[in-house]
Amino acid sequence: MIILVTGATGLIGSRLVEALLAQGHEVIGVARESARLKALSIRTRTVSVDFHDATEVMDWWPLLYGVDVVINTVGLRHERRAHHFRNVHVRAPRALFKACVLAGVRRVIHLSSLGADPSSHSALLASKAAAEANLLKLPLDGVVVQPSLVFALDAPMIRWLMGLASLPRLPVPAGGRQTLQPIHLQDLVACLVRLATSEAYARRIIRLAGPRPWRLHDALATLRRAMRMRPVASLSVPTWVVRTTAALGSRLRWPFNQDTWRLIETSPSTEGSITRTLLGHPAKDLDQFIATGEAEGARSLSAWVWQRPLLQAAMAAFWLGQMVGLWPAASGLPRTLADWLGGALALGAATLAIGSMRQRRRWWWTLQALAISMLLVAAWAGWAPSEGLLSSLWAAGPALAVLWILGDRASD
Ligand SMILES: NC(=O)c1ccc[n+]([C@@H]2O[C@H](COP(=O)([O-])OP(=O)(O)OC[C@H]3O[C@@H](n4cnc5c(N)ncnc54)[C@H](OP(=O)(O)O)[C@@H]3O)[C@@H](O)[C@H]2O)c1
């Protein structure tokens, strides 16, 4: 069969492409940047399409010649400049679905989300529901799949939950009534492969989830046990703290944000029988997600989720302290034009050098470079004793190295 998979670089899409290839299907992987598919060592025909721009039927129709099945796994976790839910979740999929009707594609599977709801306060969940409606009203064998939270050690939200589970106190947020019913990525992919190759569940919304809902606190305690960490006492976290963190998460694009909190709060669940039928056996449950051999790796990744921001905050406080300590001692602005130019050049060079060393988290390293450069300029212009500066760098250096090395390992 020829199967076109959009979002082929994503958590779910990339594993799905591998599973379909392993079953002998011909796969066309659609990605925003096809080079990223090659970087993932996924050997498949690739096409580059940006959903933000592909909002007309003619953007899709030429790609669908001979295609039997289309599986759309594209999704945004956050809106970004020039990447809005309206285009990526609604308009581009609508154009793709209509093109599938014209091209005679046999089946279209669209990955939505458990909790998708046209009246949701979450723009993400409302846009998901709009796409579902667009597919189901077309004269087409369309299947909307609503997965619950998907478990994989490299899934950002799962890392975040594991981070909570590894804290010295187990948080019980906002009264602790919320539930999760996560599904393991392997099970979800197996269900999607099965759906792609069958005719079952046409024109339906199906919910795929693990065998049972878990109270959030029990889920965290179970993840903690699976990571071979000793049990700890619980800590009740008031609703306002959770909401403030979620609002901050939306601003800073954390996995935990207002959309994810709304989803967790509504605790959507499902009976799970369709997952079992598609798999031909019961789905893995949360207490089976982390295998014994994965416990140690999971533990160090999870701790890093909260250790990194803590270290970053400490570094920010350190630099601020340095600045506050330095500037009152300054005898004035740079005295000569040469001083000023030299300082500006040193600042620019250091910022560029350190900022470009890592594409990811460029802003963070740029800030560090800026702070170091300012200290150097200050010392050079005689505003601060250089011994003080050297001793500060001696202390800051190892902290920066830890952030760099472990930060990289955590994002592998
Ligand atoms: N993971 C979960 O727990 C979960 C649970 C329920 C539902 N879902 C849904 O399942 C779908 C896939 O989730 P996921 O976890 O695999 O997400 P993911 O890892 O973030 O992958 C999203 C994919 O969408 C692509 N994409 C984003 N914007 C695009 C654009 N403008 N044009 C083309 N492609 C674009 C990404 O490409 P780049 O690599 O170029 O960014 C990536 O391939 C989403 O719709 C999500 O809402 C996920």
Tell me the overall shape: globular
CATH architecture of the largest domain: 3-Layer(aba) Sandwich
Q: What is the gyration radius calculated from CA atoms?
A: 25 Å
The computed structural class is alpha/beta
Assess the beta-strand content as a share of residues: 5-15%
Task: Give an account of the 3D structure.
The structure is a single chain. The chain is an alpha/beta fold and 412 residues long. The chain has 2 domains: 2-290, Rossmann fold; 305-410, no CATH class. The chain is 52% helix and 13% strand. A 7-stranded parallel beta sheet has the order 3-2-1-4-5-6-11, sandwiched between helices. Strands 7-10 form a two-stranded parallel sheet. Strands 8-13 form a two-stranded parallel sheet. Strand 1 (2-6), helix 1 (11-22) and strand 2 form a beta-alpha-beta unit. Residues 326-335 and 355-359 have low confidence and may be disordered. The structure holds NADP nicotinamide-adenine-dinucleotide phosphate. The site of NADP nicotinamide-adenine-dinucleotide phosphate has 27 residues, from helix 1.
